[in-house]
Design brief:
With about 375 residues, the protein is of the alpha+beta class. Pfam families: DUF748.
Length: about 375
Amino acid sequence: MKKPLQPYIRFFQKIRTIYLVLMILVLALIIVRLALPGIVKNYVNKKLNELPGYTGHVDDIDIHLYRGAYVIRELHLKKKTDPPAYPFLFIETADLSVEWRALFKGRLVGEVTLDRPVINILATEDINKEPSKDSWTKTVKALMPMTINRLQVNNGKLAYLDLNKKPVTNLHIDDMQLTALNLANVQKEAKRLPSHVSLTGSSIGGGRLKADMDVNVLKDIPDLDLGMSLKGTNLLSLNSFFEGNARMDVERGNIDIFSKFTLMNGEMNGYVKPFISNLKVLDVKKDIKKKGGVLRVIKKAVVGLFAKAVTNPKTKKIATVIPIHGNIKDPKTSGWATFVGVLKNAFVQAFHESLSNELKNRNPGKSE
């Protein structure tokens, strides 16, 4: 009777062995799954701190294996020279995942969604001392091993600050929505600029920002074609900038800014075109009581007279055009530094020329 039962006993022993192995594997996977966020967090923190001149950390990381993604909670990246209140980068949530739609096209690429990122750029920063492009690329690849094909930014903020000016200059764009598509050219577009980036936001003073750009980021120095408009900004919001840079302020006015430029093979070409309307610089009763007294009033009166002279009597707008030109391929300088420097100088010059330099090119009393 025992012999007929032996095959069944061996069968159930094998089933029990398989069950135990499966249980061990499941327990191992659970342990790995529980430990994985901590492992990834330590790895990310290590890579952030390897970026020269920076310190960084993330507060937490969630793993979503079912969709091939991980989520970073509160990423902090600070220059070692940054004041604590203005770190270079803060991201509330960063979702990094596989772009599944691209798999149907035979490409393994990633998509990134950033919620409420904040970037602070300080005027005193020397861009030439920034980490090299290779250092930034290495850090980004460590965080996202796959090539990024889609980037989405929700409710972002970009601020430009000059803490050495009195009053402090604080210019910023809020509520930024950015969508960048086909960055890795998964669509295999034959265009010179196969990727598209769209951006909207709200500026200081209630301005409405809109920008569209076609770009090829696959080149060592990307090619791009950008058009931008900033409409309806209240000039009163820029008085800290005017005070710190031109020693004047305004009582009333609005500014619209239009810009278009291209970057092709390292060569920049384009323009910045500001329109200032309803400008009022002088209020004697108010200004005579302010710091600076009579001299301040006289200075503002001169600017006010100038504004009246160059304002088109039909449109009541002050307008000028500032060209953008520059080559960023000089091996002796940082291409990124040159790029940012040309744009910064163009936009700052646009303000100054709108309020002063046009006087040299016009005869007082004559309209446009």
